[in-house]
TrEMBL record:
<dbReference type="InterPro" id="IPR004045">
    <property type="entry name" value="Glutathione_S-Trfase_N"/>
</dbReference>
<dbReference type="InterPro" id="IPR040079">
    <property type="entry name" value="Glutathione_S-Trfase"/>
</dbReference>
<dbReference type="Pfam" id="PF02798">
    <property type="entry name" value="GST_N"/>
</dbReference>
<protein>
    <recommendedName>
        <fullName>GST N-terminal domain-containing protein</fullName>
    </recommendedName>
</protein>
<dbReference type="GO" id="GO:0006749">
    <property type="term" value="P:glutathione metabolic process"/>
</dbReference>
<dbReference type="InterPro" id="IPR050213">
    <property type="entry name" value="GST_superfamily"/>
</dbReference>
<dbReference type="InterPro" id="IPR036282">
    <property type="entry name" value="Glutathione-S-Trfase_C_sf"/>
</dbReference>
<feature type="domain" description="GST N-terminal">
    <location>
        <begin position="14"/>
        <end position="94"/>
    </location>
</feature>
<dbReference type="GO" id="GO:0004364">
    <property type="term" value="F:glutathione transferase activity"/>
</dbReference>
<dbReference type="InterPro" id="IPR036249">
    <property type="entry name" value="Thioredoxin-like_sf"/>
</dbReference>
Amino acid sequence: MAASPASAPAAGTDGAVLHYFNGRGLAEQIRFMLAATGVEWADRHLVKREQFQELKASGVLPWDQVPLLELDGERFTQSMAAVRHLARRAGLYGDGPSQAARCDIIADGIRDALGAFSGVPFAPDRDAALSAARDRMVGKYLPCLERMLRANDAVPAAVKEAAAALSAAEPSLAAVPPPVGASDGEAAGLPAAGSADAVFLVGGAVTFPDVTVTEVLCYIAELLPDVGATAGKQWPLVVAHQRAMLACGAMRKFFGSRHRHALGDAVYKAEVRAVLA
C-alpha cells in the first residue's frame, strides 16, 4: 500500500508516523528522539517509487525530501528540524537561551559526525569509507566530545572521576544496551540529574545532544570495533556517557523494538535507489 501523507495512526501509537526508507539514514536520529521522549510511533517505509511520488505530489514535502514526521496533527521535514521540535516538546533543550544555543552547537557537530556512517551503505569502496570514518572519529569527534564532557562544570568533578574510573575497568563502547541484571530493578526513562556516575554534554541533566550522540557512539562500536574496544582508555567520559544512556529504560526499549533498524545492506541500498529513481 502506498504511503499516505495523512496516515491513519497505527494501534498502540500516539498518532505519530515517520515516513522514510527501511533503514537508518537520516531518520534514525528522529527515532532515537521519539524513543527518548516517550512517543510511540509507526514507521512507514518507502520501498517503491510510487510511494515517494505520492508524498511529493501531495505537497507535504517542502524540499521534496524525507524523512517526514507526522505528530500532534503537524508535519515536520528535515531531520534536525524534527529532532529539535521533539527536544522542545519534551523539555530537552537545556535551561535558558545560552544552554539552548550550546545544545545546537553540539548537535550540529554530532549531525556532521553521523555523515561519516550514514553514507557507508552507498559508498563505492566500503573499506575506504570506513577508513575515512575512523580518521574523523579518532582525529576529531571523540577527542572533542571528551573535552566537552570534561568542560561541563554543571557536572561535579567527583561524578566525572567516578564515571572515568568505571570506564577504566570497562573501556569499550557498546553497539547495544547491556543485558539487564537481576539486581538492576526497573530502569528509568532517561538518566536522572544528579546520578552518581552520569555525565552530560550540557548542564546537569539530559539534553537532546546526549540522545543523538548515542547513535554515533553505537556506530563506532558496530563499524569501527578496534576503536570502540579501547575507547575508554583515551576518552573515558565518552564511554561513561554512552554507558549511562544505553542503560536507561528508554534506550533499552528502543533497541529491543522493531524501530531500531539494521545497518544498511544491499537490499536497503537497492530499495533507496529504486524509490529515488
